[in-house]
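We were asked to recover a plausible sequence for a given structure. The inputs and outputs are reproduced exactly as logged, with field labels preserved.

PROBLEM: sequence recovery
POSITIONS: 305
GIVEN STRUCTURE:
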């Protein structure tokens, strides 16, 4: 039987880079992972160290983590949709080009990107800006695919439904380099009914084509369907629920697609505000066991005590 490809968001720190990310993923019993090449909320980046990358590859080989299943996420402040401040727009394009180069230096082939927010412009112009930006960024010889993420529709976010993503893909010259990352929390918050996931997938296949799915972000949601909020919840503790998420994770048509958890860290106890404990080890175990763990939070707290 084919093994589920599952992992989570992990950190990528200056001193150990990819090696640190791999070791963190292994601490969760994951067989893949996703990282930002620096802090997700800023664009300061350090040069990639090949010695650490080679060491990381060694550990990945030993633990059968396949390079092609590992995901990079571009920082979320990169906004290709808004060109009102032309300097920021050009900065976003330059940064993305460098991010693709960093991915290539690390041997990574999948870069997740939020399409962008149109802010004071409008949807049509926003989409045009994204297309123009991607056309400046994508080189036909690059090994990296850009995975446009499905968004919740918070504020003026673009990419909130399949036809909007399709418009972007169709505008890109080298559209073979553009794929999609489905995020379950975002789909639900955008209004898709995940309890009828077969229908959602059918719609995706009809509009974009199922072969364009490059990654799935598996998150529960804190809010009701169509809330446009984008607040992730731990698996089984939100409004999507364990069974629905499980049916997506184990969907036969998505078998070879990496599944990545981006669920929130939890607090060490109910009196503490700071969320410091990663939930991933126990969420992965629960998913592999195919049964909701009613003591999920307690198990995490006990383990990291
Ligand atoms: Fe994202
Ligand atoms: Fe996501
Ligand atoms: Zn999100």
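RECOVERED SEQUENCE:
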């Amino acid at each position: 039987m084919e093994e589920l490809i599952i992992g989570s968001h992990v950190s990528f720190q200056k001193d150990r880079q990819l090696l640190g990310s791999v070791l963190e993923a292994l601490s969760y019993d994951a067989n893949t992972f996703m990282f930002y090449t620096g802090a997700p909320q800023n664009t300061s980046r350090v040069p990639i160290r090949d010695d650490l990358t080679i060491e990381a590859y060694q550990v990945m080989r030993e633990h059968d983590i396949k390079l092609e299943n590992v995901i990079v996420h571009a920082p979320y402040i990169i906004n290709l949709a808004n060109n009102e401040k032309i300097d920021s727009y050009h900065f976003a394009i330059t940064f993305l080009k460098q991010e693709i180069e960093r991915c290539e230096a690390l041997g990574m082939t999948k870069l997740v990107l939020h399409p962008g927010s149109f802010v004071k412009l409008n949807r049509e112009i926003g989409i045009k800006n994204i297309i123009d930006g991607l056309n400046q960024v994508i080189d036909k010889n690059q090994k990296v695919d850009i995975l446009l993420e499905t968004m919740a529709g918070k504020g003026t976010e673009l990419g909130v439904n399949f036809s909007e993503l399709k418009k972007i893909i169709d505008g890109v010259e080298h559209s073979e380099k553009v794929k999609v990352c489905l995020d379950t929390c975002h789909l639900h918050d955008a209004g898709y009914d995940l309890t009828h996931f077969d229908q959602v997938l059918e719609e995706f296949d009809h509009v974009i084509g199922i072969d364009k799915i490059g990654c799935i972000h598996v998150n529960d949601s804190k809010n009701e369907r169509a809330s446009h909020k984008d607040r992730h919840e731990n698996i089984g503790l939100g409004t999507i629920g364990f069974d629905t998420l499980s049916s997506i994770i184990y969907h036969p048509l998505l078998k070879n697609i990496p599944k990545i958890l981006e669920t929130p860290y939890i607090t060490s106890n109910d009196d503490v505000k700071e969320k410091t404990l990663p939930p991933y080890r126990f969420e992965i175990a629960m998913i592999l066991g195919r049964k909701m763990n009613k003591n999920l939070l307690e198990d995490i707290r006990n383990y990291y005590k």
